[in-house]
Amino acid sequence: MSAADRAGGLDFSAKQVWVTGAGRGIGRAIAERFAEQGAQVLGLDLAFAEGPCSFACAQLDIGDAAAVQRAVQHWLVEGGQVDVLINAAGVLRLGLTEALSLDDWDQCLRVNASGPFYLLRELIPQFKARRSGAIVSVSSNAAHVPRMQMAAYAASKAALSSLTKSAGLELASYGVRCNLVSPGSTDTPMLRGMWQNADGAAQTIAGQPAQFKLGIPLGKLASAAEVADSVLFLASDLASHITLQDIVVDGGATLSC
């Protein structure tokens, strides 16, 4: 870690940070960035397929309430505390509302909204007891504006946003801050899986009028690292008086949201 990072308030030395969705994409970038800044990171996911991790890894289905309860109680005994919780796990199911299967709907709500609730339910008592900490949830700009074929995903991310702010209001008097980062189109396996051809990136940047989707004024996709930096800022001492806020990291794609 550089002296500039320490002086700038990004020193997470001796901090225990849990990151869900740490197996790939944005969650992986967040976990690696915290590890770079000295944090003791526990990355949680169903699988870790992107090679060796620079942080401790554990498999967990956050959509399984009983599994979350067992795992959290075990890890709290082993590790003693959690200073920062990052809710970054997410799944995407595309389809027009009437075409979505029940499984599509259930999976989006289960992972994107219920999973963070299960973790919060288990961890809030220790955050209250310690009277400090930070929680950052990775939502989406789809929670701010409607998107074609994203009813399940957008609804689940909107639920996550509201859940995080409600928890933040309840935790404010205990000195625990809860904030959101809402990315737009980010160069991850999830986004690439949506592209229909080699022009996917260019079409995303330009916008898709037929789907009522604006382009990206900055003229580029976000990188996972750019989203991770916003998460670290909100979890750091630089944001010590910021809570109940939602930073939209989408290059201006949602304009006035």
Q: Ranges with pLDDT <50 over ≥5 residues?
A: none
State the order of secondary-structure elements, H for helix, E for strand.
HEHEEHEHEHEHHHE
Radius of gyration computed on alpha carbons = 18 Å
Shape: globular
Indicate the CATH class: Alpha Beta
Span from first to last CA?
35 Å
Number of domains: 1
Average residue-wise pLDDT: 88
**Oligomerization status of the protein chains:** single chain
Q: Largest beta sheet: what is the strand line-up?
A: 3-2-1-4-5-6-7
How much beta, percentage-wise? 5-15%
**By CATH's scheme, which homologous superfamily applies?**
NAD(P)-binding Rossmann-like Domain
CATH architecture identity = 3-Layer(aba) Sandwich
Under CATH, the topology can be stated as: Rossmann fold
The class by helix and strand makeup works out as alpha/beta
The total strand number stands at 7
Could you please describe the fold and organization of this structure?
This is 2,3-dihydro-2,3-dihydroxybenzoate dehydrogenase. It catalyses: (2S,3S)-2,3-dihydroxy-2,3-dihydrobenzoate + NAD(+) = 2,3-dihydroxybenzoate + NADH + H(+). InterPro entries: DHB_DH, KR_dom, NAD(P)-bd_dom_sf, Sc_DH/Rdtase_CS, SDR_fam. With 257 residues, the chain is of the alpha/beta class. The protein has a single domain, classed as Rossmann fold (3-Layer(aba) Sandwich), CATH 3.40.50.720. Helices cover 41% and strands 14% of the residues. The protein has eight helices and seven strands; from the N terminus they run αβαββαβαβαβαααβ. It has helices spanning 3-7, 25-36, 65-79, 102-130, 151-171, 189-192, 200-206, 224-235, and strands spanning 16-20, 40-45, 56-59, 84-87, 133-138, 176-183, 246-249. It has a seven-stranded parallel β-sheet with strand order 3-2-1-4-5-6-7, with helices on both faces. α4 runs parallel beside α5 (151-171). It starts with a helix and ends in an 8-residue tail after the last strand.
